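Researcher: We're teaching a course module on how sequence relates to structure. For the next exercise, students receive a sequence and then see the predicted structure as tokens, so they can try to spot secondary structure elements on their own. Here is the exercise chain.
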Amino acid sequence: MNLFDETRRAWRRPGPPPVRTLLWRPKQDRWRSLVVLSHGSGGAAANLGWLAEALCDEGFLVAAVDHHGNSSDEELLPEGAAFWWERPADLTVVVDHVQMTEKVGSAAVAGYSLGGYTAAAVLGARVDAAKLRRLYDGEPVLPIPPDRPDIVTENAELVARYGRAAVDARAVGDYRDRRFVAGVLLAQAICPILSDASLSAIDRPVLVRWGGADEVEAPEVNGQRYTRLIPGADGRSMGQHVGHFEFGDIPDGAAVRSEVLADVLPFFRALLAD
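Model: And here is the predicted structure for the students to work with:
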């Protein structure tokens, strides 16, 4: 599906941003509910095909989004990596469209890495304004990605391009969508910059899974913090030797993904009405 968000403008080209979406339809005419998936930074919707196919086999209608400027299936833009708070709005666009065109009621969300943050955001997680100011002042509030060693300078240039007030307003916005009744966060990111109060106010069932050897997103400040602050969150490590990318689509992660599915499928099955 080639959707567009008419409420926003695309980066570096005229018109609204695209919300390209892959859809998996169950074989039966009537499905349980909708599950929306969000990929990691620089990844693509297809990377979560392993999860989408398993959910589809369970009778769920599944939609996976390619996030504008941050997907390998289109041009990667610095805004896509830096302005990650734009991602949750993509999921709302998908639910808007699917609920108008398909026979579906309740919705749930699952995300991997930066998609884990995206899932948390539509459940109510918000950026802490004070921490964001510190980040833009050059403090290491978040780790510097290996592929973006000049991230502080890059972010400063982007903020100057779009205007500090406009960026701040979008960054700390509330992107909660009450239609999402449950969420799954896998090898999740960005938690250090989220406000404690917003995480503590999430009132949806949340399942959190991470790897003890995650080399990208430290579990202590991500998976463990999400689990500690979200009321009733079901969180655990998938093993002390499990890294970040086993949750993606690399061949070496098949066993981990199988174990993740053993938790995720009954979690959604129990919470989403037929």
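Model: If you want an answer key for the exercise: DSSP finds ten helices and eight strands in the chain. The radius of gyration is 17 Å.
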